[in-house]
Amino acid sequence: MVRMADTRNCEQCGTQFSPRREHGRFCSARCRVAWNRSHVQGPAPEASALEWSITAMIDTTDRLPRIRGLDRPRAFAIIGEAVWWVTIVDGTLVRYHPEAYDRVLSQRPPDDRVAIEETLAGLRFVRNRMGQDVDHIDFIHLRQGHADRINRVTDWRWSRLPEQTFEWLSPRGQEWEAERYRAYQHRLAGHAVGDTFTRAGSFLRIAAAQATTAAVPTA
User: Fold this and answer.
1) pLDDT higher for 171 or 182?
2) Residues 191 and 44 sit within 8 Å (Cβ to Cβ)
3) Given 96, 151, 171, 179, which is the most exposed site by the fewest CB atoms within 10 A?
């Protein structure tokens, strides 16, 4: 994935740096740890945030295969909920557990690593657009075909979208959203909804498990 030129000041030391990800706040892991130690009292809030968000994500994505497409309002609602929780878990890991996130990502083959990053970026694009000027159904292509395939929500396909513009955003925001849009067109459009959540969810479960294990203090 192409990274965009962007600089900001580290919230701990003030050094100007180029973040690898949209929500990067610190120039190094050392600064992130130092900031957390000086601002957090008692159990780290990010640990509990990850715990409840990963639980909600697993519950929602596990329900998706059981939803029948004939109940379209409920099906669209579950897809939207799954998008929300996947992106919440992804954001929590990137923000609070970048070492575990990057470690699990680096263990994947290069093509798989790019596919995961672009799938998650595409889901962030969906999250940002749903509930604004785009409805759930605009993201889903309901193909004509065998009744069983239509009824299986996991077989529904993401729609290919027309060219998008983001004039209401700042120049930096336009670049980030354009990257998400390109990722959506490449990794989601034309692909099955179930495959998307399987790829994203399996990676996030492993990353969350490693982040949780690393957060447990040793005796």
Assistant:
1) 182
2) no
3) 171
